[in-house]
Amino acid sequence: MRETTASTDPLLQPYRLRHLTLRNRLMSTAHEPAYSEDGLPKDRYRLYHVEKAKGGIALTMTAGSAIVAADSPPAFGNLHAYRDEIVPWLKRLADECHAHGAAVMIQLTHLGRRTGWNTADWLPVLAPSPIREPAHRAFPKTAEDWDLDRIVADYAAAAQRMQAAGLDGIELECYGHLLDQFWSPATNTRDDEYGGSLDNRLRFTHRVLDAIRAAVGGDFIMGLRLVADEDWDKGLSREDGIEICKRLVATGQVDFLNIIRGHIETDAALSKVIPVQGMRAAPHLDFAGDVRAETRFPVFHAARINDVATARHAVAEGKLDMVGMTRAHIADPHIGAKIAAGREHEIRPCVGATYCLDRIYEGGEALCIHNPATGREATMPHVIRSTEGARRRVVVVGAGPAGLEAARVSAERGHSVVLFEAAADAGGQVRLAARTRRRSELIGIVDWRVERCEAAGVEMRFNTLADASEVRAAEPDIVVVATGGLPNTAILEEGGDLVVSSWDILSGDAKPGGDVLIFDDNGAHPAMQAAEQLALSGAKVEIVTPERFFAPEIGGLNHVPYAEIFQRHGVRITIARRLTNVRRAGNGLLATIGSDYGEAIRETRAIDQVVVEHGTLPLDDLYFALREGSENRGEVDYRALIAGHPQTIVRNPEGDYRLYRIGDAVASRNIHAAIYDALRLAKDF
Ligand SMILES: Cc1cc2nc3c(=O)[nH]c(=O)nc-3n(C[C@H](O)[C@H](O)[C@H](O)COP(=O)(O)O)c2cc1C
Ligand code: SF4
Q1: Beta strands 141-142 and 540-544: pairing type?
Q2: pTM of the model
Q3: Residue range 183-197, pLDDT digits in tens
Q4: Cβ < 6 A, ligand 1 pocket
């Protein structure tokens, strides 16, 4: 096999899209990170995209679904492409990305029924037909002729704004949004000139394309991100989808097709378009390649192509012209630069956790589960720079995600780092979570850090339960306590000694019972994973939770695999109930379940195993043993921390070292919080 070098690597070959030369084949497809402020792409938004430009990407498709009209209310922080104020902000973003060699486009849309009416200007939601989208739950009105006239003009005006901002082009969103809601028989039941035949269903799209071309001229690049097969019995067929592609290409108005397969009416459907970890990689790549072969037209595509080898294959085999590696760039915005420099192995892997996307549907911003610098470019570095100050001795205790990150960052700063870990391997709770086969990719969070630590010279001492004297013997200038926590199951009125924890189930320390009650008073992954493991082992499982809906800390896409497994295995879910007591009853157990909604409400269950999930309690003995000997007595200056500035507190001038406690050693949280704790302190060591 011929060796791939930067000059022969298919991924690094420039691509000519009409007058535009894209420097390689890597792109980030449209995604709304919800970093907008007042609907505008201000500093945070710009810095996020500029980082990818610095990192070697060829094309960054900004926004996700920037809205062209006020009656397409934002569903998740969408940019307001219908306002003139957006132009200078986008211009600055585009100028800075261009300065780093990346092209910039934007996705425009009218969301149609895929939004809610109770935000922004409280305008009614509209759609071709009054059919509700379950995911966003609005009951849309049927679009009238005057609505369509207005929206056509809105598209044209928005496109003009994007041109005025100096963007390299636009892409129209045509999957699950207004334009393709007209195409799909599932959402268009009209009997006027916009419904029925394919010609009629395409009429509105043609009007929009005509109006945009009239507004921006023939040279401005315009593509479509479009569904070419809804993979849905009542939706758009593959034949119709490919026919639509051909007809749109034939107009001569379109410059590229960005191919989608599947529909997004529900979370379950969306997870097939944007697969999460444990699901097949690149499931629609061959289909996108088929469309390219049939249309002989530039094709872009993204769907879980999260490793460079698959991306390279996609280009080398002529399946795609541009490869979307969208979440992969959220995890590591420097993919292109690392490939070009022969440092592919240093790419921080996207582990498919989809924490990023799930957060925006819960009203948050997109954050990567293990890259806390993403979206925080103003204060957090993606590339750790060597210290200009003294080289220090840093002792980190605990090799879970927090400790590994602290060790990695400290060592990359140039310090001498020793990392103590009581277990035989690194990873802590992440290693446990990755034992669920479906979530095994999570181990990438650990492996990447272990490799980076090794490369940076961290001395890792496993099987070492470091106490205060051992830490002091290492003569540290800085100590980071990242000892994590242990499951907190002592929350019942009676019978705490009769229960096991989620960890016991996941680790295999507790043999699965036959008839199991899981009390989830956390709402995150651990209880769900324990339930999954138990259900797959053949146990009869009931999850009881005091919440109003189950697992509220888990977003919609991560819910999907759990829901599928639970439904397949008959897992019973009981909400708004609280486990209070567990007693022995014969060979089994008797659980009493109360309710926050009435003291008289009490039920019992005869089972043979009870699992209690209530987060962790910090393992903080070491921290408190070291506190008095430290210069800062463990104190963190939160103002400095938030601003991204170094810590300078001195409470005890006699102290021998500075001391920090991070991750679950402070309080039960999650992987992102643990890693962010570490990065924001250690970047200034
Ligand atoms: C936070 C987030 C927001 C997204 N929003 C949009 C969007 O507004 N429009 C769109 O076409 N795709 C959106 N996507 C989908 C991505 O463009 C892409 O298709 C998807 O992430 C699969 O590609 P990947 O596996 O390379 O990440 C979003 C993805 C993420 C992670
Ligand atoms: S949160 Fe997960 S899916 Fe999203 S970018 Fe990070 S690693 Fe990838």
Answers
A1: unpaired
A2: 0.97
A3: 999 999 999 999 999
A4: 29-33, 64-65, 107, 173, 225, 274, 302-306, 324-328, 356-357, 360, 366
